[in-house]
Amino acid sequence: MKKLVLTGAAGRLGSYLREPLTRMCDELVSTDIVADIGKLYDGESYVQADLTDLAAMEAIVKDATMVVHFGAIGDEAPWDDILRSNIIGAYNVWEAAYRQGVKRVVYASSVHAVGMHLKTDTIGLDAPHRPDTYYGLAKCFAEDLASLYWDKRGIESVCMRIFSCAQATNARSIGTWLSYDDLIHLVERSIDSAVVGFTKVWGLSNNDRAVVDNSKAGHLGFRPKDNAEQFAKDVFAKTPPLDNKDLANLCIGGPFATVELGNSGVAALGVVNDKKTT
Amino acid sequence: MKKLVLTGAAGRLGSYLREPLTRMCDELVSTDIVADIGKLYDGESYVQADLTDLAAMEAIVKDATMVVHFGAIGDEAPWDDILRSNIIGAYNVWEAAYRQGVKRVVYASSVHAVGMHLKTDTIGLDAPHRPDTYYGLAKCFAEDLASLYWDKRGIESVCMRIFSCAQATNARSIGTWLSYDDLIHLVERSIDSAVVGFTKVWGLSNNDRAVVDNSKAGHLGFRPKDNAEQFAKDVFAKTPPLDNKDLANLCIGGPFATVELGNSGVAALGVVNDKKTT
Amino acid sequence: MKKLVLTGAAGRLGSYLREPLTRMCDELVSTDIVADIGKLYDGESYVQADLTDLAAMEAIVKDATMVVHFGAIGDEAPWDDILRSNIIGAYNVWEAAYRQGVKRVVYASSVHAVGMHLKTDTIGLDAPHRPDTYYGLAKCFAEDLASLYWDKRGIESVCMRIFSCAQATNARSIGTWLSYDDLIHLVERSIDSAVVGFTKVWGLSNNDRAVVDNSKAGHLGFRPKDNAEQFAKDVFAKTPPLDNKDLANLCIGGPFATVELGNSGVAALGVVNDKKTT
Amino acid sequence: MKKLVLTGAAGRLGSYLREPLTRMCDELVSTDIVADIGKLYDGESYVQADLTDLAAMEAIVKDATMVVHFGAIGDEAPWDDILRSNIIGAYNVWEAAYRQGVKRVVYASSVHAVGMHLKTDTIGLDAPHRPDTYYGLAKCFAEDLASLYWDKRGIESVCMRIFSCAQATNARSIGTWLSYDDLIHLVERSIDSAVVGFTKVWGLSNNDRAVVDNSKAGHLGFRPKDNAEQFAKDVFAKTPPLDNKDLANLCIGGPFATVELGNSGVAALGVVNDKKTT
Amino acid sequence: MKKLVLTGAAGRLGSYLREPLTRMCDELVSTDIVADIGKLYDGESYVQADLTDLAAMEAIVKDATMVVHFGAIGDEAPWDDILRSNIIGAYNVWEAAYRQGVKRVVYASSVHAVGMHLKTDTIGLDAPHRPDTYYGLAKCFAEDLASLYWDKRGIESVCMRIFSCAQATNARSIGTWLSYDDLIHLVERSIDSAVVGFTKVWGLSNNDRAVVDNSKAGHLGFRPKDNAEQFAKDVFAKTPPLDNKDLANLCIGGPFATVELGNSGVAALGVVNDKKTT
Amino acid sequence: MKKLVLTGAAGRLGSYLREPLTRMCDELVSTDIVADIGKLYDGESYVQADLTDLAAMEAIVKDATMVVHFGAIGDEAPWDDILRSNIIGAYNVWEAAYRQGVKRVVYASSVHAVGMHLKTDTIGLDAPHRPDTYYGLAKCFAEDLASLYWDKRGIESVCMRIFSCAQATNARSIGTWLSYDDLIHLVERSIDSAVVGFTKVWGLSNNDRAVVDNSKAGHLGFRPKDNAEQFAKDVFAKTPPLDNKDLANLCIGGPFATVELGNSGVAALGVVNDKKTT
Questions:
Q1: Which among A138, B81, B135, B200 counts the fewest CB atoms within 10 Å?
Q2: pTM over 0.90, yes/no
């Protein structure tokens, strides 16, 4: 691949992806809203841009083969912020990709698109959307947008529904952890798969207590290696009994299932899914 | 019911609903973006407002029990227009409803939220979103929004996926027609059902050749009476053989399945689903 | 058919069935725990018996072709009562049938075997058991017993999951009503069908707002004629707004979904499903 | 439609279709293996031909828009006969249609393609093939052939799984009857539907006791009017009790479920599905 | 966990669990109907009690956090015995748990709740009940009871459907074996999972030829390590050809699928699932 | 096992099986249409025969316990060839097996029976037939034949849907590879399983990017060990970007999805599934 674009490159997860992505292309163009992302890797360049600026996005994705789209607010936020960064931003990425002949968008979707489903249902990829927040609602929007651009315009997408990509420090994450290595593996498979059409895939590690079923994404070849069970004993020892009437404990969205719409879920989560990037 | 609000009251379908709705409440507040909707019915008042103005929407729905939400661009349109009227507009309606304690939103969703599904699949209400246009994408968004407001805030919604509510003058409409009487019946049931939670329902008449299966919405009691078969012979006589490789003939979204994104589908459809209202 | 047995003949629903059943056989043996059921119909005889007495049941079903089993406590009740009348009683009926070579048991099962399912899900006959009371739990037991006796001993059963067979006087019953005529029709089809194996069927009328889907019981030919919609306007006019967070309004079991286990649901229901018979 | 071809025109069911089909086209070409089918209807011509002769079939379907394919052995028969008439014959019809640019094949498939399924399962159109005879096996073959010609060559097909199209004189037929009028209606809808792709549909009347579920063929608009229930009382009165361990009574294929492979099922059925035509 | 109760502690499987369970709590109270279970482990005490004595059960579970319920007749038995130990006994355990504020019941359910399903169907956890014996029927009852107590009273349950927890010495067990280590692992996960609601899980090892699919119990994190394939060659060498028309070989319940109701299946099984404990 | 028969023994895959099969029986009778297959293994004898000769097949399978049926044209071919070798040949094998009391047929079915399904759907074994060629159509036929002989005559079958059993040298094969070792393992399990009834199973290795889901064949115990991922980097490096509108890249049948019916797919595949044997 000649050119690859990474949005949200200054974000927590984006930062982890920069170096691995340089090894998958001749030229990685990283972009984010901040002025500077520090020292660049070999083959990487940085362009400051706002996702809400379609013209800027077009310029950035010109001649690229794929876009790895991680740029967005990475937490629950007020509607206007989600609208601007996560909804309009998503539109701009797919539309820019279309206008510039980009082949594929690899997208950081989220469990929160379906966060109100019960943990005890072990849902598959065919479960209906059931967002838990504005943040999750925007993920639903982007997935449907990706479906539309595939059906109508032939732009491929992989919607990676990322779970808890952070230190596994609470009881929920023993089931929902995605290690950094497995995240990188997932992104690599989303890029190197020959044909993906419109693909959804759960982004979580090979945890003993995985709360979802990835069997409908077999073709993508995502085979995570890590397993949060290694942290279980320590985490459970520090965890007080959980209230089993609390939706935050019953739903796969975790604390987002009960957080007030528009309010940050960070404190409740005890972990940041991704810091704000755009 | 004391007070009911109708958005999009100046629109083609909204206009049909005004009189029947006055009979279901003490006070019908009709609203649209136009200055005037002509002679009012008994019990009806009119308020000019823009759906994109949240404060205005809040003022209108104050003390209402339900909102019948038909206000939106009723056709494929450029993204910026869909974003403003159909996405932000939808958010404003549900958010205003929440802030003012409104119990339920009865929403004019559309077949175009799932328009890329094949006609020969006779899908049920559990089929995944598969929009055919920006117009359909916005319907997907509003349905997920409705799901979110029910799960998180207890606002009920009925998402009526309206098909071809217009004269049945082409071959597709023999399967997809929704008569005006059946539309009114559907809206009435969406209002008088005691508890609806988050309900989706196909909005089409009792056509012999109905292309979808409503059996998962039994509780709503929608029992359409009309049947487009009465028009079949005449319509088919005037219809040249259809190209069975053309997605417009294969997909339930009809011409929207092939219309260029952002361009009006009206000419292709040969029928207006609804004229622009907001 | 030469001989048919009706249990629970003194009960509310059993009483309605006596006369119609005499027309389907040469000899109807009605039985219940009471001393006397009044004037008998042509071809009917009465035997007082306790369902918990296996020997008595054996004597009654001797030479019968089928048993129509309505005998049981027809409401939520303390566990010990349900155990005796509805669980042990059911065992005795199937076991007596087996010992005496009876071909089929037509059983008054109930919606309460699955009463905790959501009304808005319009479940089919393949939904899992989800009882709402001890009463419903005993229905689950009897259905599984019927399955066992078919698989292991070739005794056929029809499990009629009866909904609200009483005057339709509350909002729930507009969706769940089973008219007396439709009950009789259902029992007739359960008897005259040539081969039924182990069949489950929803027992409710052809209500516009029917909350379940009978399409998996097509072979039985139950085609109800009545429709509670005729009562809807009057009933709704008298019904205050229902609390849509109350499981009694959300679940198909209605008030049984919230009644305390072991306590009668009668007051809450405002209608008796069946009075106590055994 | 200018030209329509009917194979098996001398057969029992084919004979019924000749006159109605003349009303759906300018020119009906009837064909069968016999020398003569008697007096012709207006617009009908007859060509004697053997289905196993591809060149002859090509000549017959030249310039036709559709083929209504009823030509085949209409009963269980020795393998070599089924192979020749029903398998090779089917291949020749679709291949001839392809070579001559015919748009659609309307095919007399049969319940016997799935005859080993249980009557009490009320299967839908998505149930897997489960043939009960060589006859049924050939129907499976032709359905898969139809699927192949649609996917690879764009030839449309409607596979009508005909049940008991004959006098309803036995207990099974109360559930499986297809009246002649409903057969004609089904063929008409299979012809006049604008786009059908590869469509399967159950061919049975609106019987109370219909043993299958047609809800996945909604787009075809088959709405049968007749109901075998009118014969039920008389038929049941003459029917001795059926053995409920006998697969002939348990399976939707009826006597074909137990007939020895290669032997005629006619005697067992008490009714001829169709007499031999080719 | 402060206090844990084990019923059936003198039984074959219960005996294996005593020592591991002491390591999961401060205080293990073992109970069974026998006078004495021999030498106790550190942290273990023993209380003789009859499961049919609700007051005794209440006293035992007082202040316990969870109950591991293995007490029951562990084989097919006459109805009256099953009724007393396995049905009434189960009721007493859940009711005592409820009255004393116990959080969770970990229950030894069994494959025999669904034993009549075909081995070649590889059913999932959503397959309907299909018991093969009175023993299996009582397991169905207890599972429905567990569902009821979760829905109505918030008592959690894990229903472990144990297969062949014994030496793998016959052909069936190569597919159905549950090693003792994997049993312990399963019980541990059923205890240490933070929230389980009403969970069902298949209890069998990681056998190559596992006859069921556990993918709907992902959240529980049961990852068995053992594999009966190590015994396959030896066992098959000693196994005569099996009759493939025999339900004992076709159904996942094995010999229980053909054992006479009420008669012990032990001889047929060649292995005791559990000896009688209550 | 005393005697085992292998058809297609001179074919590419058959050749690989000869030696392993000799270790599973006392006497292996290999057969094919060629005069000679070279040096025989211990316990192996060779009989030249044509699959289209039923009498010859009967003679060969006499006294055999099972037939491993690999004899057929192993590629797309003209209809008449497929008819003779793959359809009539299959009939002869099952019919000969029936006449001679053979217990089981282990059959080399193929992905091409369902080759038109989308790669991104990760279908299970319950997906409907959807052949991509005459070759695949004949596989459909044989699977339905196997179903028929099990249901009606008690002959067991395992239909192994073999994918790409050859060097993994193109992008598709990274997902569809079946190593020779895994093929042998699959055949062994198909033989040594005690009871298989009518079983379908996907025949592909444990590839990261496996395009189908084998979870419904758990009872067979097929646990492939190899993984084509080892070849991915090299293969992808040599692969130009694939056209994602080309059905050959979208469908699991690969190039067969676009090959002209009746024309060899070999050139397109770049690999021979099996050379012609009969």
A1: B81
A2: yes
